[in-house]
Design brief:
With 120 residues, this protein is of the alpha/beta class. The protein has a single domain, classed as DsrEFH-like (Hypothetical Protein Ychn, Chain: A), CATH 3.40.1260. Helix content is 27%, strand content 19%. It is built from four helices and five strands; from the N terminus they run βαβαβαβαβ. A five-stranded parallel β-sheet has the order 4-3-2-1-5. The longest helix has 14 residues. It is globular and about 45 Å long.
Amino acid sequence: MARRTLALCRQAPYGNALAREGLEAVLAASALEQAPDLLFCGDGVFQLVPGQQPAEIDQKSLQRNLQALPIFDIERAFVCQRSLAQRGLSLDDLAKDGPALHPVADTGRLIAGYDTVLSF
């Protein structure tokens, strides 16, 4: 039986390299036919907000990485409902081009269902 892997995307999109490196690791794993599921939580939900202009702070946009996920067979991702609410966001505020986003109320239960959890 295949091992199930979850990538926790917990970092804000800019300010350090963890968000970008996490998405790149997910894309690389997927290219090797080991696509993990994704859970955006904490400040990681900000990665999904469209219309960001990171060039103004000399950063590259993560939008291409997010848009590429379905091409690499990552067609759905989970989003922590509590993290959205704490940051004044809803699913309607998030980008529509990328994997389908599924809200999750009980992230602990979701995480417990995986064999391996990577945190970025």
